[in-house]
Structure formats: C-alpha cells, structure tokens
Design goal:
Strand order of the largest sheet: 4-3-2-5-6
Radius of gyration: 16 Å
Number of helices: 10
Shape: globular
Number of strands: 7
Largest sheet: 5 strands, parallel
Length: about 200
C-alpha cells in the first residue's frame, strides 16, 4: 500500500508534549482516537472525543495497569496487512477494526533509574505493551504509520496536511525510528538489570 489513509489511531504516551495539539489535528480531519489511561484523560480534559482501549477490547485494564493493550483486538488491528484479503476477512469475521496510526512513547525507565528507585519499583517502570505496539506497527509499516516520539508529530502533520494520507517512504522511516527507540529502551533495561 503506497498511500495510506489515516482514519483510526491508537495513542498511548508517557511524554504528553504536543499530544493535545496533535490529537486535535487528527480529530479535525475525522480520525477516530483510541487511548489508554493517562493519555485518554489528557485528551478528554482537552475536550477531544476518545474511546478507551477497554471499550475496544471489552476487557478492563488489569494487574495494576500491566495489562491494557495486550489483546487481539488491539494487536490484530495493528498487524493486519491491508493488502492481504485474507487478513482483512479475518478481521471482519472477528469483529476487529484495523488501526492506521500507532502513536506510542514508552514509560520513562531512564527517569526511574535516575531517581534511584528500588529494583522492585524500577521494574514497574519497564513498559511491555508500548514496545509491543511499536514493534508490531513498525513491522507492518506497509499498512500502518507508527510515531514513537513527540518529535515526529510535526513531520506527521505535514505529511497528513493535504488529504490525511501518508506515503510509504515516511512510514518506513518512522518504522526504523520505532525499532531504534525500542532497541535503546531494551539496552538501557539490559544494562540496569545486569549484575
């Protein structure tokens, strides 16, 4: 898929810099927003229409927030190849709607390390669902746009400005940035946990 229309986005961010501006841009172009916890609250506080991830999955956040987005209705919607009729048929059969945009940045594990938290507290700052969504979207960049940092919002808005579509080249660049982000994140955690 060379040109991807953006109609449905999932946003789950720790760094909320520029979030409201970006989400406002998306909603002004008819993009449906799905979100988690704190991100959802920030969007609602700004008066933006947003649907909770738990509404999409039909399952509440559990284990103190450890399990929110790890669900087939999220990951199948991210991983479906839109050029593969069988993928789209499976989504339809299972009542799953595809996503076009994943906007995720990760828990601040570096900040946890800097605050000298206990090992048990620091482990709670290890993001699991975020890297899973980033990696899934980056793998499937032919069918979805991934934005792993607020620093890319402006470039994305420039891409989407004309007709709320985005080209393959930009999606591939953002996929590489997403893998770079998860790689750095994992390297930091590896270094921290190594005895």
């Amino acid at each position: 898929m060379d040109i991807l229309p953006i109609r449905r986005a999932i946003l789950s961010v720790t760094d909320k810099s520029g979030l409201v501006e970006f989400a406002t841009f998306l909603t002004s172009r008819g993009v449906e927003l799905i979100s988690t916890g704190g991100t959802q609250k920030a969007l609602e506080a700004a008066g933006l229409p947003v649907t909770a991830v738990s509404t999409v999955t039909g399952f509440p956040e559990i284990l103190g927030g450890r399990v929110k987005t790890l669900h087939p209705k999220i990951h199948a919607g991210i991983l479906a190849n839109k050029d593969e009729p069988q993928h789209m048929q499976t989504l339809a059969e299972k009542g799953i709607r595809p996503f076009d945009l994943v906007c995720v940045n990760l828990y601040d594990f570096a900040g946890a390390v800097e605050r000298h938290l206990s090992l048990e507290q620091a482990v709670e700052e290890i993001d699991i669902g975020g890297p899973c969504m980033l990696r899934a979207a980056a793998k499937n960049f032919h069918s979805i746009l991934v934005l792993p940092s607020p620093q890319w919002y402006t470039a994305a808005m420039e891409e989407l400005e004309k007709d709320t579509t985005v080209g393959l080249e930009f999606r591939q660049v953002m996929a590489s940035r997403a893998f770079e982000a998860t790689s750095r994140y994992d390297a930091l955690i590896t270094s921290y946990l190594r005895p």
